[in-house]
Design a protein that fits this description.
Elements: E1 2-9, H1 15-28, E2 32-40, H2 52-64, E3 69-72, H3 78-88, E4 91-93, H4 95-106, H5 110-125, H6 151-186, E5 190-196, H7 202-210, E6 227-232, E7 238-243, H8 253-258, H9 260-267, E8 271-277, H10 283-296, E9 304-309, H11 311-314, E10 319-322, E11 328-332, H12 341-355
Parallel strand pairs: 1-2, 1-3, 3-4, 5-7, 5-8, 8-9, 9-11
Antiparallel strand pairs: 6-7, 10-11
Amino acid sequence: MRTALVGVDFGKGDFVASLEELSLLAKSAGAQPFTTITCKRGSPDAALFVGSGKADEIAAAVTDHELSLVIFNHALSPAQQRNLERHLSVRVIDRTSLILDIFAQRAQSHEGKVQVELAQLQHLATRLVRGWTHLERQKGGIGLRGPGETQLETDRRLIGERVKALRAKLEKLRKQHDTQRRSRGRNNAFSVSLVGYTNAGKSTLFNALAKSKVFAADQLFATLDTTSRRIYLGEAGNVILSDTVGFIRELPHQLVAAFRATLEETIHADLLLHVVDGASPVRMEQIEQVNLVLKEIGADHIPQILVWNKIDASGLEPALERDEYDKIRRVFVSAQSGAGLNLLRTALTEAAMANRPAGSQDGLEFQATTAPEDG
């Protein structure tokens, strides 16, 4: 599907990196980015987001290159999306819809599929507008007397009922997770969750540590469903390691809410391994974005160790870095080559041993880590 990518530079953040990420997202969804159109604005245009002149330029590109989709690197209002589709005579989606589409393609478990459907319906509910004649309120008359409900109202009611049913399903699944966690808690299993920006290498690291075969690929959101494995760390005994969905800047709030059950593993972990793509030029911004999502889901209080991954691509050596209190701060590894994994196992062993006397997270000596100075 030949696609045009559209980005508006509002003078905030790394605009080039944001466009590169949009291209990766589009490819992950199965689109073929053909051209990228950019502009600078102080604020979005109320009607077309980009203004009429730039909209004409996009329309010309759509016609000249026979494009079938236009993706905006921003969140569009329902009216803006509708106006753009009329102006461009082609399907228009925003960044939120794109991410939802990728999640819909990748969800494998029953829980993942329920969460995706819930997020999509919540997004769709905001897109229901009066745009067609058959949505006119039904007039009275012989054979035409109805309940007085428009098609629009019917759609909203049906979506509301489905959302209610999906939330009930997720609540049931959440209770099952709580039961499983209590069972693990009785066994005093130290729990570790891998978190990080999407495509930072979490699943590759998970496979290396757990000797597992979780799907890992060089694409965004390769992992959507939480996978847990028990790993043995010698004198520290068994530890539960969980791989989780990757985070991304401006993650649609519908997804944060819908994936709450999946992210419960993160909230209830004793330690977070915050995996960082050490070769990314915007790694510090990505660290900040992950910490923002952790705060949003209530997991910002959990101790974390930064795992500086992909050192083979950034010219760094395996290392274990401590702070002034002799607490482990960062571990430099390559999940792909295995370099530094012995140091990471040492860090995990130390964390689990420190946690053992108290039998709870309170005994853990690691300090919650904020983004360090780059170096």
